[in-house]
Amino acid sequence: MGEIKADLYTTGEDGVFDLTILKGGADPTSLATAELSVMSAAELEQYAARTGKRYEALPSTAYTIDQPVVAFDGNTGYATRKVTLKTTVIQALLQDNPGKSFALPIVLVSQKDSVNAERNVVLLKPSVLVPILGYDESAKTLDVSAGKTEYELRLSLPFVSPWDFDATMEIDESAIPEGAVLIPTSEYEMSGEGKVTFKKGSRVSEPVKVVLKPSSDLLVGNRNVLPLRLTGTTIPGMKLPEKPFILTAEGYNQIPLTVDMLSTNAQEPSEGPIKDLIDGDPATYFHSAWSVGVSEPHYIEIALKEPIKRMAFKFQNRANANGKAQEIKVLGLTDSWEELETLTGGMPTGPGSIYSSKTIVSTKPFSKIRLVVMKTNGGTAPTFFNMAELYLYGK
């Protein structure tokens, strides 16, 4: 039979291999006896001269052969025997003799029955491997602008797993990339609480399902990440990846706002021009009319360059105490102006504070947006409000 590769693993267990012995001949009811024997040094030298392959025999401390004598009765045509290779002994042997090729040379012999001389030799050639556990893919970016999003994370081995085992994953906050923010626990669910299951006979783990449930915080242009690091397995001796798996959740694209896209029905003539909403300086601000009367609720209007169906927005308050929006009606221009959402609650009043809206969805694309302030911390519409910066996101 020749050389057979015998892979051992640094997991604290020995390698067990089954050898099958077949009984041949014209009479299937005949009796036969044979024995699995390890070649002597002279026999191994003769084998090397015959085949051109030279091996060093494993010492007797490196293996056992279960029931080496094989007796066939008239009802059996084959038998199996287990050969156990001692991983720890062989690992030390290979490390101490890096240039040598070791093998366990087993020959089938019989004192009274004939043995097929072309199929009576097996050389188990061991190698000790470190099981390297890895991610099926090293990173993944998900678009969460449409709302709830699912991802199935799998781990993989470079070989078919001979074990049932589990691995554990944990959030590694030290691995958050520069410029990214950690997805809060309220925004996702992960099956198995980070436990990953491998089943014997598979190269790939059972999936860990990550469900992202984005609120507005994931829809305002941040790079939101879950850095998941493998921290251990139920089988010792496995090598874990040095780098974590990075799951990135990208929300709506930021829509660049230009001055020509902005307008208002209530510009205060003495301060706060609307262009200051998008100048990137929170020290400047937009202020709606207080020195002149405007009979309808004050609003900011945005003319989009391309229609969208989903949006979120964020604003930063002016660094003072009054005129802070507390209720905003969001209108979208489709065939006509339609109310998309009325936002109440959660709008901060502190100087320089920031508000991020929820996702706002329309069944039809809209080309213009109005943010109509219905209430502030100082009164109800029509009344003035102010904002330092405004950001829009959408698809």
What characteristics describe this protein?
395 residues, mainly beta, Immunoglobulin-like, Jelly Rolls, 3 domains, nine-stranded antiparallel beta sheet, six-stranded mixed beta sheet, 2 helices, 5% helix
Question: How would you sum up this structure, described in words?
Answer:
This protein is mainly beta. It has 3 domains: 128 residues, Sandwich (Immunoglobulin-like); 118 residues, hypothetical protein (bacova_03559) (Immunoglobulin-like, Sandwich), CATH 2.60.40.1740; 136 residues, Jelly Rolls (Sandwich), CATH 2.60.120. It has 2 helices and 31 strands. Strands 21, 22, 24, 25, 26, 27, 28, 29 and 31 form a 9-stranded antiparallel beta sheet that branches. Strands 1, 3, 4, 6, 8 and 9 form a 6-stranded mixed beta sheet that branches. The longest helix has 11 residues. The radius of gyration is 37 Å and the shape is rod-shaped. The two termini are 65 Å apart.
Class computed from helices, strands and strand pairing: mainly beta
This entry's quaternary arrangement is single chain
Q: State the major sheet.
A: 9 strands, antiparallel
**Shape verdict:** rod-shaped
Number of helices: 2
Break the fold down into its secondary structure elements and pairings.
Blueprint: E1 2-9, E2 15-22, E3 32-38, H1 41-51, E4 56-57, E5 63-65, E6 69-72, E7 78-85, H2 87-96, E8 102-109, E9 121-129, E10 134-135, E11 139-143, E12 149-153, E13 155-156, E14 165-171, E15 180-182, E16 188-190, E17 195-198, E18 208-212, E19 223-233, E20 245-250, E21 253-255, E22 262-264, E23 286-287, E24 299-316, E25 325-333, E26 337-344, E27 354-356, E28 360-376, E29 379-380, E30 386-387, E31 389-394
Parallel strand pairs: 1-9, 4-8, 11-20, 15-19
Antiparallel strand pairs: 2-7, 3-6, 3-8, 5-7, 8-9, 10-13, 12-18, 14-17, 14-19, 16-18, 19-20, 21-31, 22-24, 23-30, 24-27, 24-28, 24-31, 25-26, 25-28, 28-29
